[in-house]
Amino acid sequence: QLQLVESGGGLVQPGGSLRLSCAASGFSLDYHAIGWFRQAPGKEREGVSCISSSGGSTNYADSVKGRFTISRDKAKNTVYLQMNSLKPEDTAVYYCAAPLYDLGDTTVQAMCAPYDHWGQGTQVTVSS
To answer: How many C-beta atoms surround the C-beta of residue 111 within 10 A?
Structure first.
């Protein structure tokens, strides 16, 4: 059964960095585009980033562009989200997700939505 597990969240001061990891069990990520979305209390779910199955295509929400970097390590069957210059408004639970279907660049531009599977999430809190 496809299972995604996020890790790497925590409490960080504004301007700090975190690297989130998304590990897969029971299947290989090689053939899946993978996205990250976040959910903050009282706010709508926001697609943050998406990477194609090859890793050659990526997309970012305007709110994180230039600060976040998505990447994948096929040898480790893991997708990462490097988050730099964090702001209080980045505070949320972050989820990695596999899309319901993969149409290549179309899926990447849609931030990997609609989502089919996602993990339990990891909390990111940016506060001084």
So the answer is: 22
pLDDT digits (tens, 9 = 90+) for 60-91: 999 999 999 999 999 999 999 999 999 999 99
Angstrom distance (rounded) from CA 63 to CA 18 = 16
Half-sphere exposure of 91 (CA within 13 A, CB side): 12
Average pLDDT, the chain: 95
d(CA 82, CA 70): 6
Q: What is the C-alpha separation between 58 and 68, in angstroms, rounded?
A: 11
* CA separation for the pair 28, 69 (Å, rounded): 21
41: buried, middle or exposed (CB in 10 Å: 19+, 13-18, 0-12)?
A: exposed
What span, in angstroms and rounded, lies between the C-alpha atoms of 5 and 117? 11
Convert the pLDDT of each residue in 34-51 to its tens digit: 999 999 999 999 999 999
